[in-house]
UniProtKB/TrEMBL annotation:
SUPFAM superfamilies: P-loop containing nucleoside triphosphate hydrolases
Transmembrane residue ranges: none
Keywords: ATP-binding, Helicase, Hydrolase, Nucleotide-binding
Domain of life: Eukaryota
Region named Disordered: 331-352
Low complexity bias (residue ranges): 331-341
UniProt xrefs under Gene3D superfamilies: 1.10.3380.30, 2.40.30.300, P-loop containing nucleotide triphosphate hydrolases (3.40.50.300)
Protein's recorded name: Os11g0176200 protein
Length: 573
């Protein structure tokens, strides 16, 4: 379609090298170039590879690229030879490449605009999670669409292969780019190279002091001081009378809450709880600071919920085996415009409505001894609202809280540790009830003031600690610790002078410099031929995940064991 409508040249962004090559090869039967353009490409290609040896010209990475280039198709990613990347960039600039499959690195630092940009996916692996691309990343890549002086507008195509929330798309397309924050850190490679310089001004501390990281820290200090002053003023305005009693009462509440969590974690173990999680049972749901209140059990299933059905606050635990389908009081906006969006708790003062929400078993914070009848068909809104009215009526009937299942009397649990926890909880609850503030009309207001003041004081102490703990001092401590490691491994002597081992590590900028140097100096590479050296060296190059099962050859088992032993030695230093 893009070629038919003359929307080329096009850059197709994929977030893995394997995908780039796969997509390009799947189009290898298409041809976008004229005979004249093919001749030009072949001439440029032949001239470019003349600088390579005859043996290197026969590499698959070289030979397989020419047929694609002649058809107007190319690939660009970090795994290509530098010569091939430069050649692809040159041909793309000259308009001889009509469809370029590239990773996001092509959008960074290269002035290579196109008429159209296509995203093959909206998710990428960032080393930790498979997440949606950020707004800044989208802006950087989609900004390649539209050539100055040639195109009236640029065209951006997003291929979405799964259901997305409208808010996610808006944040990606219209959101603000992430702020520029320095992630400067001291590596062994950096320290060794700084030590190898003879110029006095290039000390590690000089580099740290003049880094963008230190600049950002010092720039933020006035704002931190202003915030501390504001928090101290707010804390001064809060009533501080009777703080001793309030502190005691507040601690009792925290201790009770902690014991309840421990007891509940024992009660909701599947072999104990499933017998009581029957339809109609009232259960309390809490996730961190989000209290969903009391809900009604509908069903229990041993399978994870479908992607996209959990509320944001509950989604982190979706991997649990047992899911309790629970009628929860949700915001009316959870099901607006007929589209099933993730449910949210009702806002203060909002009427809300009941919805069946899949809740991971660990997020149950209370099991009530109360059960209510639920209709067999919960699809009609009236049926769900009647249950909401019933739950609210129970709340009025039990103003001190719904009665809960007793783990000993009701569930018959007799483990000594659990029985001891229950007795401790009973003692603390008696102390709480006998406390002077428990029956005071103003206890709730006083307690909220105390809690707020405690939060303010904690935040003030954290900010003051941040001011005292200079970033420069942090780096000094890290430099001292890393230098100690380098001394123990023999890279520098007791006076901090670089040794032969350290000078070798200075030259290794691909892979782990400490581990590779250790293997070089312990003779691991000495008895290996060049094929085996290449195999062992491949362990130091990060690559994408693959389902391919690799069998280790017998002749490589010893070098592999030596590599693991060297890594273990460094880790234990």
């Amino acid at each position: 379609m893009i070629m038919e409508r003359k929307f080329q040249p096009v850059i197709i962004f994929s977030f893995s090298r394997r995908e780039c090559e796969h997509h390009a090869m799947s189009m290898s039967k298409l041809d976008f170039n004229t005979d004249e353009e093919k001749d030009n490409i072949e001439q440029v290609f032949s001239s470019a590879i003349l600088c390579l040896s005859e043996e290197d010209r026969g590499l698959p990475a070289i030979e397989l690229m020419l047929p694609l280039l002649k058809r107007g198709i190319a690939v660009h990613h970090s795994g290509l030879l530098p010569l091939i990347k430069e050649l692809v960039e040159l041909l793309f600039q000259e308009g001889l490449v009509k469809a370029l499959f590239a990773t996001e690195t092509f959008a960074m630092g290269l002035n290579m605009p196109a008429k159209t940009v296509v995203f093959t996916s909206v998710k990428k692996w960032d080393g930790d999670t498979n997440r949606y691309i950020a707004s800044g990343e989208y802006i950087q890549m989609s900004g390649r669409a539209g050539r100055r002086g040639k195109d009236i507008r640029g065209i951006c195509v997003i291929m979405i292969d799964e259901k997305m929330e409208m808010s996610v798309i808006k944040d990606m397309v219209l959101g603000k780019p992430a702020p520029l924050v320095s992630t400067f850190r001291l590596s062994y490679y950096t320290i060794l190279n700084l030590m190898s310089r003879v110029e006095g001004q290039f000390t590690a501390e000089h580099v740290i002091r003049n880094s963008f990281h230190q600049f950002q820290y010092e720039k933020a200090l006035p704002e931190v001081v202003q915030k501390i002053t504001s928090l101290e003023n707010e804390a001064t305005l809060l009533d501080s009378s009777g703080e001793t009693d309030l502190a005691e009462y507040h601690k009792l509440g925290l201790d009770i809450s902690e014991l309840e969590k421990k007891i509940m974690s024992e009660m909701i173990r599947p072999e104990r709880a499933l017998l009581y999680l029957v339809p109609g049972r009232l259960v309390k749901v809490r996730d961190g600071s989000t209290d969903w209140g009391w809900g009604v059990v509908v069903n229990v299933v041993k399978k994870p919920p479908q992607s996209g059905t959990l509320p944001p606050a509950l989604s982190a635990s979706r991997g649990n085996n047992y899911i309790v389908d629970t009628l929860l009081h949700c915001s009316s906006s959870s099901n607006e415009n007929g589209s099933r969006s993730k449910p949210l708790p009702p806002r203060p003062g909002e009427k809300g409505e009941m919805h069946v929400v899949p809740v991971p078993l660990p997020l149950l914070s209370g099991l009530s001894s109360v059960r209510i009848n639920i209709p067999p068909d919960l699809r009609p809104p009236e049926a769900r609202q009647n249950i909401l009215f019933a739950v609210q009526e129970l709340g009025k009937r039990y103003p001190q809280g719904l009665p809960k299942l007793d783990p000993i009397k009701d569930m018959g649990l007799q483990e000594p540790e659990l029985v001891e926890l229950v007795h401790k909880l009973d003692d603390l609850e008696q102390k709480l009830c006998s406390h002077p503030l428990h029956k005071s009309d103003q206890s709730e207001q006083q307690l909220s003031w105390y809690q707020r003041k405690a939060e303010l004081n904690h935040e003030i102490q954290m900010l003051k600690s941040k001011m005292r703990d200079s970033q420069l001092q942090k780096f000094r401590d890290e430099l001292r610790n890393r230098s100690r490691v380098l001394k123990m491994l023999g890279h520098i002597d007791a006076d901090g002078v670089l040794q032969l081992k350290g000078r070798a590590a200075c030259l290794i900028d691909t892979g782990d410099e400490l581990l590779i140097t250790e293997l070089m100096f312990n003779g691991t590479f000495n008895d290996l031929d060049h094929h085996q050296v290449a195999s062992l060296a491949s362990c130091f190059i990060p690559c994408e995940k693959s389902s391919e099962q690799i069998r280790l050859r017998s002749e490589l088992s010893t070098p592999m064991m030596q590599l693991q032993e060297a890594a273990r030695k460094i880790a234990e230093v």
